[in-house]
């Protein structure tokens, strides 16, 4: 098992080499180091580590390299944008889906969030335009993604040639892990990284404040191609649900264990019993 804690960078430096069996793995720790690799030296670090089983199954964008990756990525981004998934179309699709979800839970409706009531009310569907008028809700969603830290190890990258980085040479064929966990839970970037607190994304006046260390989708040339779709879904689903329901837990908030059930390539949340009370 690979255990690299954000605070280790103070002790061991931000570039840590470990061996997983025979495989040399370089772990990049902390916001500055991860950003320097993924953004400032984006081309050097754009390789993807070989995953033989996945490759046999898919040969897909996630695990390909070189020209094949470039073409697949261009194709995927264009497809998401142009063929029926343009922003407006995507938005109305998700609005439809949210309505279905609401219909499913409608028997149990009751209360809501003050901010959403004031800005949108309960009769119309939210749009992405509403996001800037809902700073608290936006902050809650950002904080949920930061706190969950869904892909803590990132998807491993690969040195497709010798890379000169921060005074080190990372040899060709080294697996590189730009550790998202070390950025999303860094004491240098967040007041209380282990506490769920939407104030991490709000200024003193309650305005939304983005922190550049918010990189759950990673960053640079290999960053998640589904980011805008995922963010749109999160916003529209959550706001639609909160327009129509109050959520609570049968045993009260204290009974909820928010630590992940499994934590390896992904932080997988536990199953919860949830009361969706109609408003
Ligand atoms: C909350 C939801 C999501 C999170 C947190 C997430 C996170 C990530 C991360 C961390 C990576 C690796 C980036 C890197 O290697 O530096 C990635 C890659 C990728 N994601 Fe997502 N993702 C999400 C949703 C989606 C969705 C909805 C799609 C599809 C529409 C998608 C498609 C992909 C693809 C194809 C790649 C590989 C890109 C490449 O290798 O060039 N993701 N994602």
UniProtKB/TrEMBL annotation:
GO molecular function: heme binding; iron ion binding; oxidoreductase activity, acting on paired donors, with incorporation or reduction of molecular oxygen, reduced flavin or flavoprotein as one donor, and incorporation of one atom of oxygen
CC cofactor: heme
Entry GO CC: endoplasmic reticulum membrane
Main localisation: endoplasmic reticulum
UniProt keywords, alphabetically: Endoplasmic reticulum, Heme, Iron, Membrane, Metal-binding, Microsome, Monooxygenase, Oxidoreductase
Family: Belongs to the cytochrome P450 family.
Name the UniProt record assigns to this protein: Cytochrome P450
